[in-house]
Q: What sequence folds into this?
C-alpha cells in the first residue's frame, strides 16, 4: 500500500534447514517402522499389521518425496535471492 512502510519478514535459514532435516528423519522413521511392522506381520501371520506396515512405509516415502521437492524449491529461491543481491 502506498504510504505504508512494510518491512519484509526475515527468513531464519537455520530454522528452515532444521525443520527440513526433521521432516526427512520423520519420513525415514516411518519407512523403517513400516518395514518392521511388515516383518512382524509376516512372522506372526498378522495381515492387518503387515498392511499397516506397508501404509507406514508408503507414507514415509511420500514425506521424503515432498521434502525433497521443498528443498529444491528453497534452493531455487535462494539462487534467485543471491542473483538479486
A:
Amino acid at each position: 500500500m502506498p504510504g505504508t512502510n512494510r518491512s519484509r519478514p526475515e527468513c531464519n535459514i537455520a530454522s528452515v534447514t532444521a525443520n527440513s532435516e526433521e521432516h526427512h528423519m520423520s519420513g525415514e522413521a516411518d519407512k523403517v517402522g513400516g518395514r518392521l511392522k511388515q516383518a512382524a506381520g509376516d512372522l506372526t501371520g498378522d495381515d492387518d499389521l503387515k498392511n499397516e506396515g506397508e501404509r507406514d512405509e508408503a507414507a514415509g516415502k511420500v514425506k521424503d518425496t515432498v521434502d525433497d521437492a521443498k528443498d529444491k524449491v528453497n534452493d531455487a529461491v535462494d539462487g534467485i535471492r543471491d542473483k538479486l543481491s
The chain has a mean pLDDT of 84. Residues 19-84 form one domain.
